[in-house]
Structure formats: C-alpha cells, structure tokens
Amino acid sequence: MPVRPERGGQAPVITLPWGTIGDLATAAFAVAAVSGAALAVPYDTQDALGSIAAMLLANPAGAFFRNVHYWAGQLCLVLTLIHVWDHLRASTEYRVSRGVWLRLALTLPLLAFIMLSGFMLRGDAEARQALRILTEATSQIPLLGPLAATMMFGAGGRLDVGYVQHAATATILVWLFIIEHARRGVWPRPSAFAAVTVAASGISLVMSPGLHDGLEPLVKGPWYFLGLQEILHWTPWPLAVVLAGFAIVGVLYAVRVIPASRAAWSKRFLLGLAVVYLGLCGVAAFMRGENWAWDPAWPAGAGNVRFGWLFGPAPDASKALPSPLPVVLGRPEGCLLCHKGVTGLGNSHRPEAVGCASCHGGDVFTLDKARAHAGMDLIPGNLASARLGCGQPACHASIIPRVERSVMATMSGIIAVNRTVFGEPARPAAEALPHVEKLGRSPADTHLRQLCASCHLGAKKAALGPNDDQSRGGGCNACHLSYSGTALAALTRYEQQKARGAAESPTVHPALSLDIDNGQCFGCHSRSGRISTSYEGWHEFHKPPAAASNPGRPAPSRFRTLQDERVFERVMPDIHQQRGLDCIDCHTSVEVMGDGVAHGRKSDQVRVTCEDCHGALVPDLPVIPAGAIDPESRRILAVRAWPGPAASHFVGTARGDTLVNVVRDPAGAPVLIRKRTGERRAIKPRIAVCVEGRGHARLSCGSCHTAWAPRCPTCHSSFDAAAEAYDWVDDSNVKGAWKEESGPFSAGPPTLGVRRLTSDARGRTDVIDTFVPGMILRINRPPAPGSQPVALFRRLYARIEPHTTRRETRSCVSCHNDPVALGYGQGVLLYQRAGAGGRWTFSPAAPLLAEDGLPADAWIPFLGARSGMVSTRNDVRPFDVEEQRRILRVGACLTCHDAASKAMHDSVRDFESALARRSPRCVLPAWE
Amino acid sequence: MRKLLWTGLALPFAGALVAMLRDLRAASPPVSVAIPPDLPVGLSVLDGVIMHRGEHGSLSAYSSRCTHLGCRIDRIIGGEAVCPCHGSRYRHDGTVSSGPATRPLTQLRVEPDAATGGWIARPS
Predict the structure, then answer these.
(1) ipTM value for the complex
(2) Do B86 and A217 touch (CB under 8 A)?
(3) CB within 8 Å: B75 and A217
(4) CB-CB contact of A830 with A735 (8 Å)
(5) A658 partner at 20 to 30 Å CA-CA among A40, A93, A525, B56?
(6) Distance from CA of residue A838 to its chain's centroid?
(7) Which residues of B touch A217 (CB under 8 A)?
C-alpha cells in the first residue's frame, strides 16, 4: 500500500488509491447520512416494521436506499475502527489538543449509539429486544441512568425519540467531531466518496439486511453487538459491563495524556481487547443458537442478510398490489399477495388470522417466488419440526412436548416387549424409557427397525394428500389434517397442472381441525392388534380365498382389500361403531396426545374405561360442573360449538378427566354427544347383573361383552444376513433382513386371564380380562461374532382390548366349558360323569410343539400351570389351577343345567350357597 | 467568570430537562393484561405476562420482563420461562432457575374478570 509520510516524524498512515482510511470512513458516514435522509420518506416510526416491510414488498427503490444506508453504516463502522487503529499505530494523537482527543474518544460510543439505534429502528422482534436491553443497561447507571435511557431511547417502547437521536443528535455531533479533527475540511475526498458510493450501492443490489418476521425463535443482535451479548450472558451484573465500556473510552482518552511509554501499553491493551471482542462476536455468531444456548451452526435466522437481486421481476401490472398490504401478526405478509383467497383451513387457522409463514416458514418480506419459498416447509406439522410451526409460543406450545412423550411417538411399550421377547434388557441401564428414534442395532432393535418402526408419530409425512390405509405418522397431521372433497379436487388439479409444467397453487387448503374421523387412526391401528379393522367388523385372512381377492367381485362384498393388499372378511362390528361413534368419541385428547408423562406402555396412557360412561346409575356417575372443567376441555368445547344448550355438568372419568361429550339430559340421564356431528346418543347404564354376586365380581366388562378377537398363534422370525431390508428409522436400505412367517389366524372369543389392578373403584385387586396369543413364536436370532446362532421359543399371551364390544354377552358355556377361554387352545373339552365324581378331559386340536409339549395355540396346559415368562407383561397371568377348577366346576353344572335356569342364576349370586342346596344327583368333578 | 456565566445559564435548562424526563417516565402507565378462562395448566406466556395455572386451579402471574436486562420473555421450554436474549430461565413461581439473571420475575396482581370468566393481571 502506498504511504504518505507525516510531518513531525510520526509513522505514516495507510493511504489507499481513493484516500486514507479516515477519508473513506468519512465518506461512508456521508453516504449513510444522505441515504438516511432519503429513507426518512417511506419510514414511519409509528409502524417501523410495517413501513420497512412495505418497502421490501412493494418499493424496491426504497429498499435500495435502506440497503445503501445499512451497508454504508457497516462500512463506516469498520473503517472507523481501522482508522483508529491506524492512527494509534502511527501515534498521531499528539497532533490534536486534549479537548479534541476527548471528543474523538467520545465519537466511538456515539458511533456505537448510531449503529445500535439504527438497528432498533427496524422495529422487528430483534430490534425490540435490543431496545429493551440497551434501555435497561443504561438505566442501571447510578443516578442519571434512567433519565439518560429516556433521553436516548424514549419511554414506553416508542421509536420516535431514538429516531431523532439517531438521525439528528448523534449524527450532528459525530459530524462536528469529524470536522474538528480532520485536516481536509468538511467534505470527504471525491474519490473516497465515489469509492464508498460504488461499493455500498453494488453490495446493496445483491445483499439486503433481513428483517425478523416475528416467528423465527432465534433472536440475536447485530454482529458487532454479539460480543457484548456473549459477555452479558456470563455476567449477572450488567452495570459492570456498562462501566467497563466507560473505562475503555477513558483508556482511549488517556493515551493522549499519559507518557508515551505507558501510552504504548495502553494501545496494545486496546488492540488486544478489540481482538478478543471480535473473537467473542464470532463465537456468538457461530456457536450460539436459540436462547443463547450452545449450538454451533452457520448463522441463520430471519433477521440475517438475504442474498438476491434487489430489483426482481416487477409485479404483474394487471395484479395491482392491494393497499393497505395484508397484515398478519403486526406486519405485512407477502405470501398473501400471491396466495390470495385460500380457504378450507377452518376458522382457527384461516390465513387472515395466522398467515402462511407461521406454519410454512419462508420469507414474508419478498415477492420473489424463489426467495419467498426458500427455507419453506411444504408439509409442516411433522413432529421433528412441529415446535417451529404448530408449537410456537403463541400457538400450541404446551401440546408438542406432550405428543413427543406419548407412546404413539415413543413406541416405548412395543420396544420393551420386543426386547424382552428377544431376551435382551427391556431398558439398558443408562436409558430412560425406550424410544423409537434411539433404537440400537441389537437383534431385537433391528427387528423393530425393519418390521414395525414406521408406526409412530415421529414418522414424517412427506407427500401431499390425505391420510389413507398406508399412512404412518406425520406428527400433528396424523390426526388433525384432513382433506375435504374440494381440497382433494384442488390438489389433484394442481398435480395434473404441475405434470404439464405450469401449475397454479391450489386455493383450497386441507383443513386443520378437530374433525378427526376413524380413517386418521386406520393406517397404524389396522396393524398389530387390528383394533381399527376389528372395530368396523373386519377380520384379516391369512390366505384369502380367490373370490375374496378378486377385485372384480360384486359390491357390496363381505370382503375388503386394503391398499397393502391384505384381505379382510366381514364379521361382527363393535356396537359403538354401529351406533356411529368414532374413535375420538371415547378417546380423549389427554389420552391421545398424552398427559405430558412419558409412559412405559399404552395401558398406562389410556385413561378412559367402559365404566366411565356405562357406570352405575346416574347419581353415581361423577360429574364436573361446567365452571370447573379443565382449560383444554373448555377450549375444545368452544371450538366444537355443538348445537343445543350448553351443558351445566360433564361426566368425569374415574381418573378425574372431563369427558367433554358426555353430559346429562334434563332428566339427569347420561348422554353422549358425537364429537364430529353433535348428535346425541343415550347411554345405557350398567345393569345389576354386571356387579351383583361374588361369582362374577372380578370380571371386566370386556370379558363378557367382547364378541371376538383376532388370534394369531404361530409366528417364525428369522434373520437372513445376505438379504436387504429397509430400515424405517434411518430411512435407508440395510444389509441383513428380518423375515416373518405367520401361521393361520382366526377370529373367535378371546382367552381369559387375570390382570392385576393398581386401583379400582370397587376395591378389586385384580380382574379377569381378555387375552390373545400375542407371541407364540420362534426366533432365529443372528449370532454374536464367534458364537452359534440362537433359536428362541416363546409362548406368550397378551392382554388385548379387541374393540369388538357387543350388547349381547358371550354365553356361560363359552367361558366355563370352552378350552380357548381357559387357555388350553382349541380342542374338545369334555365332562364325563363316572359314579360319584366327574372327570374333565381335553383333546387339543392343534399339534403339540416339540419345545414344550403344549398345543401350538395354548397358553397353559390343561389343569396345569406354567412358570417363567408367560406374557409380555408382568402384571397379567393365566388362570392358576385352583381358578381353572372353579371355572370348570361351574362348567360341570352347565352340562346339565340350562344357563337361563334359576339354579344357574342363583349360583351367580352365591355359588357356595347354591352348591350347598344342590340335588344329590349332581355330579361334581372328582377333585371336589 | 465566563464559566460561572455558562454554568448559570446551563443549570436551569439541565434542571428542566431532568424534570421533563422524570415526568415522561412517570406518565408511562403500566398496562393490565386480560387472561382467558381457558388458560392451560402449567406455564404460559401471553401479551407480556407469564402465567402459571396450577392443576387445582391456582393462578399466578408475572411480568415477562427478564430481570437481567429487560428482554421480553416469550417462550416456555421444559416447564420454565426462558429468555431468548441471554438464556435466563425461571421456574413456575418466578424464581430464577439458571442465570445470568439473579432476581425473580416481578409478580403481578391477579383479579377475576367477571365479564369474561377469566382474570386480569395488573402491576402490584
């Protein structure tokens, strides 16, 4: 660089072809001042954000002046700092008087004020926080702090005072101090002026300072302020930092007044401080994320610099921009200028209220399509990004953490059971509850990754369109996103246009609502326990007959084929389904979205029971006054807005949850309101026989009222190391595939067993409940390195709520005389009378398995017991021998007495008394 | 003498300036905020107020102004109010969970609002 020697023997200052650094800094200041004067015309302090946004959207020339003002200011700051370093290095401080040097020292905080006040004048979220920080920091100066803060920044968050101080007071003072110390005079060198103008203009055409849209969670100040924010993050005494700032100005002044040798050290100290501060700015820019947490990432955020040609394609002259511009969340939103008249979202999410970017992201401050859509989320609501859309602080922030902890997101029960069956620890020592996104590479976890791990809410919805048979997951969309016929037609039209190369975005959006039909649940819940299909009365074929698979079969058909080509046969539907009830009519928001607690299994999260609606007569049903219901229920009621008078009382569950759709009619009888339609259904209370008598006191509702359950008794899982499979967790193909082969499955009344209770309104410690052969299977587990393959055999039954409830119950003999009900498997169970005592015998229909000698579909041996693992849960068990004998004792009676006879009715109420009155002709089992 | 003259001229203006600024600060009235009746259980933030609704219906409200440097707290994370500026965290009772803030949030007075069934939070 050419240098110009100074008089008096001081070191030369840096001179560039366009002038000294000071010339350039002054020129930058002048360009900023002139462009600021132009910017004053469209800028409005009463609506700073709105006026700037309007410039960005509809006034590119105004945006140009904003950009020039911004970049000239940045250049002025950087050049001034270099200028100060240059002259300190050249020791030119003695060329000016102490008074002038003092004012030059004060120029730096004045320049800092100009830069920061300029940032605050954006009026966006970052600017407002910066205003609060600076006001508070200034206010902490003893005595005059609060008044100085008001003088500099105004009061009550207004920007007009700061604007005047920025545009006039500080600018004039700095200009005066520049003139006072400059050797050249008032105006900068023309070449310097030209160089800065060209540089600032050139940058301005392609780089625009951003504006925070109020949605982005990341809030940071300007780059030169970040170092201070990093320091403030570490200190609880902001006043110390403010006073340190004054001290630095003092050191700078002292350079002029102390002896030269000490001044040299002071200069080194200041230089070191500057380097450290710049380093802190870098740390904060690249290492600090939301809430100033340590989160290394490339600087991003709504307020950052935007790249792109400023003067983009002009809006179509035939589509004049509306005046005023559409405003959402207190600022104009460019999305609504192109995506006009969008309907279908429902009242709560209509674009006029929430805009587009609050869900989809993107840049709201531009009409350039590419820039507007950059960073946009086409399908928001997936769990991975739900926090930024649905879960924003102003929206459903409290719900997202609940859903994330829900078993429908974690699959914790499924994972624990699978690991237990594979002989692996259900929960490794250091792990909290299992989570599908943290599955390892063990045989059990690999098995799940390939065969089951798509059915969780964290699975991503990646394609537009409604949820269907094959849908899995999708976060909030899994339940709340639905397509009306019009929305689907609009989407179809859009996709057809896109295929032809020119598409207009649809104007009918799918709805976001509480209108959740059973189809939303179907995709996942038609698998595993098949409760979605069972509820509607469909049972899956293992090997469907040819007629069932024929797509040309006449309709209506007793067969149904899903999109994954599974074929189902029509059997008995659930009575609630026949009465028009949807899944959500029983299952509450607390159950489905979770209560915020990460439960280990589904049964801990499910809170509603049959007795909550079909409990005893009305006076015994717990009710909650309308004024005392929980806030979420209150909000749901407001959204639902069912016709008819508002209820004064709601039925509460045994666990204290409000059933928003179960009320009392004027006569006091319980009534269920269908959530989706508002239709009312009378609820039948439990009848006396359900609870009277000791004989059936331990029966759950389902043990009598479940019509059938899908039974899948045999399964073989093997691992083929050479084959490939798809890993649902990693979304990739992997080497080594688990394969499952199942045996024939059937539909029939479930097996019964015992489930331990932790609490019960009737004081019971356990109940008799419904079970199916969940896992009677063989697993060929791949070997660990250096060891032999392991063949596992498991015989486990699982508790199930089949969702095939009927008003009519199963018959007495279907429990007391049925080998399947008792857990023996299918076969012939006979009672033979021989003299004074009778004998029960059982001939199994299924072959005996070599592993344990029991029939292929059995849970327990006939009149026997098993030890070890008998179920996937440790709070359930099959009948023990004594219980089997008691059941079969009644069964013996039923071989002679009709189930509807007085004798059998008396035996339900008190079997021992009935037994004592028995006829001498009665033949009881020989063990009596 | 000249210094005395300048001081004599400046003092009244300085005094008037101080008085004007004091009156201006005093004239900025604190704002009350309406709290809706369907406020969810737990911590929420709305319109510059942080609210905690207990499971049994208790309600307390605090200013959302961070006691570190006055930033507006606008988010609840993990059951705590978190300041977006420097990361201070506050518990549901307004006390500091982690700094740099050291002082608890300013508690507001909560009064029932008969018109809406909700409440109104006012400065204490």
Answers:
(1) 0.85
(2) no
(3) yes
(4) no
(5) A525
(6) 62
(7) 75, 84
